[in-house]
Structure formats: C-alpha cells, structure tokens
Design brief:
The protein is mainly alpha-helical. It contains 20 helices and no strands. Helix 7 crosses helix 20 and helix 9 packs across helix 20. The longest helix is centred in the C-terminal third of the chain and has 35 residues. About 2% of the residues have low confidence.
Amino acid sequence: MSILTISVLVLLSIVLIVILTSVTKLNAFASLFMVSLLLAVIALPGKDIVEILKQGFGNTVSSIGFLIIFGAIIAVVLEKTGGAASIANYILSKTGHRNAASAMGITGFIVGLPIFCDSGYIIMSGLAKSFSSKAKVALPFIAFVLATSLYSVHCLTPTHPGALAASGILGANLGMLIVLGALFAIPAALAAFLWIKWQTRNDIYTETENSHHEIRSNEQLPPVHLSLLPIVTPLLLIATGSLLTVLDISNVNFILKGLAFLGQPIVSLMIGVLLSLFLLKNRAIKNINIVLESAIEKAGPILIVTGAGGMFGLVIKETGVGAYAGEFLLQTGLGLAVPFLIASILKTAQGSSTVAIITAASFVVPMLPALGLDSEPGKLLAMISMGAGSMMVSHANDSYFWVVSRFSGIGSNTALKVYSSATVVMGIVTFLCVWLTSLFML
C-alpha cells in the first residue's frame, strides 16, 4: 500500500471520528476504538494489531492514569466541601466578576509554567466551574481559556519534556529558551483568549450541577488558605522538581533527591489528596470512602476515553505517515516554516505535542545549515517554531483534548469547535511572532 493511500486513510479516519463523536453523538470510546481498529486492519496488515491497540491504550493510561484519579479526588473534595467556591470568592473579590476569565487565564499561564497541562487542568477544573458559577459566565469560555493558557506554556517552555528533549537535540541554549518560550507563550495565550471569547460570545450561563455550592455564604465555606493547600502544594512541589531537573542538580545530595521525588507529579498529587481530606468536616472512613468512590466514578470514563485517544494516536504513528510528511517537507527549503509544518503535521496526525516536537527536532537538526538556522538565534527560533507547530491541532487523538472535555463536562462537538480551533489560532499566531522576530535576530 502506497504512503499516499495511507495518508488518505489517516485523514479519513480523523474525519470519521469527528463525525461519529460530534454529529452522530456516538460514545467517544466506541468511536475511537472502532476507527482505530478499522484503520489498523486496513493500513497495518503485517503488524500485530491487537498488540498495537493494547500498547496505545495502556501506555497512555499508565502515563496519566494516576494523575487523573488523584486529580479527580482533589476536584471532588473541593467541590463537595465548598473549597473551590471559597477560592473563587477570594480571587473574584480581588479581580471583579467582569474579569473572571482573564483571572483564570493568568492563573493557568503561571500554573502551566512548571507542570504538565494535563495535571494543571485536572487540578483546576473544579475551580473553573466555580469561576463560571460565581461570575455567571458561560462555562466553555472559562474552561477553554484555562485549557489554552496551560497549553501555551506546555508546548513552548523547556520545563516540559518535549521542549526540553528537543532543545538537547538541537543544542539550543536552555536558559534563553525558557525565557523566549515564556515570552512567545503570551501572544499565544492572548490570541486564544480573544478567539474563545468571540466563539462563545452568544453562549449563555446555565446552572451547573455544582452551582448549589456557590450560593453558600463565606461563613459556611472552608478558609481560603486551607482550600488552596491541595492545589498550591502540588504545584510548588512539581515546580521545585522541574527546576531541579532543569538545573541538573536533583542527585547532588539527599535533600535534593527527596525534593525531586516529592516533585514527581504522581507523588505531588497524592500529597494534594491527603491535604484535601482536611477540608472534610467528617473524616470518618465511611465519609472518606464516599468521596473516593465518587471521584473514581468520575475518573473512570475519563481514563477510558483518554486511553482510547492514545490508542488511536499510536495506530496513526505506526502507519508512518507522519515521518513521511516530515521527510517531504525537509526538502522544500522554506526556512522557519519547515520545523513549524513538520511539528504541525506530526501533532495533528498522532496527538502528542511531546512526540511531535521531539520527532520534528530529530528531522530538523541535520537540515539547520541548509535552512540557515545553524546559528544560536536560529536554533532558538527553530525550537519556538516547532513548539508553535506542536500546538496544532489538538483534537480527538490528543489525550489533553479529552481531559479538557471530560473534566469540564463540555461536549466533544463544542470542544472541537471552540478549543480545537483555538489551538490552530495559537499555533499560527506564535509562528507569525517567530517569523517577525527572525527579521531582527537572523
């Protein structure tokens, strides 16, 4: 089977998933599984299809499964105890209700610098609902602003594994890249904010299932400092762990090793879970079990759909269509557009921003002299360009897409229309900023 035929099949499979989930309203897991199996049978006849499906599903669940479960527990506790409402009351008292979405975006941007967008969104999804309820702003506006602000820094700063690994492949200056990545993430997040605001301009706020928590008086809510502990503590621990890794000093002594261990997202979120239990007025085992069971029920469907998205992504990766497209684009001589386009195609085809930027870096590094990007500024701009490409398009084969959709409780058709289109805007705006900067740096 020719690579052109496989490319058409991959494109049709993506379109089919979009139709099944958004038009026919078929269950997301069923849609992803059926299309993944169908594509594997047709495009990968000589490979162990069952093993590929198992690996794609299992690897995804193993990488973020604990994060989803622990994050769901924290979210449920904050929701049931009024902790999220307490935080929302405090922040909104400082920013004003009119600026609720802006406050959510700024918070997400800062939180996203040290931690994965998946972890950040899981931790803060309940807070987004509280902001929506308190400010009487449509949930899609608040939720997707949070999602894109986290996503902007995840794709561009080397405190995250994709950009960190790619910077090593290209030999780019890590310190400068952290600064530039954060700076270029600002227009990306701002563009997403304006796009989402425009897309949701006609959305009307509706009462959500957790709205009854929002009408309680401050006297009935837990203290804001206690409510923040399950959120802030994991974030600080993860930030510390990331910093130690970036500085390569995590193994210097016993204390730093301990901090590095506590800074692992799974350990940090587990500590957040333990801290969240202090919000419960009744800490009897029976009451704790009720909370845990509620969280597990909430996390189960998210785990399944997220795993299915990873399964679909691996099937596409195994077809080799992403690698073929990358090799083709490397011969076009389009300068900064080459790393951007390669990362864009890889991201859209297989779903993972991390895989997209690392793979793109491997393709681009031998071509840097031919592209005129072998200088230090050229390497930095090539890195940011690939980061911009790794933003687009986040859709049905991206686990983060399903984390955002499921944890916010927003349908996949709305997520595709608003969130996925916002990731396209983010990628294009960021690349245009890189191109304009190259006029002065190169």
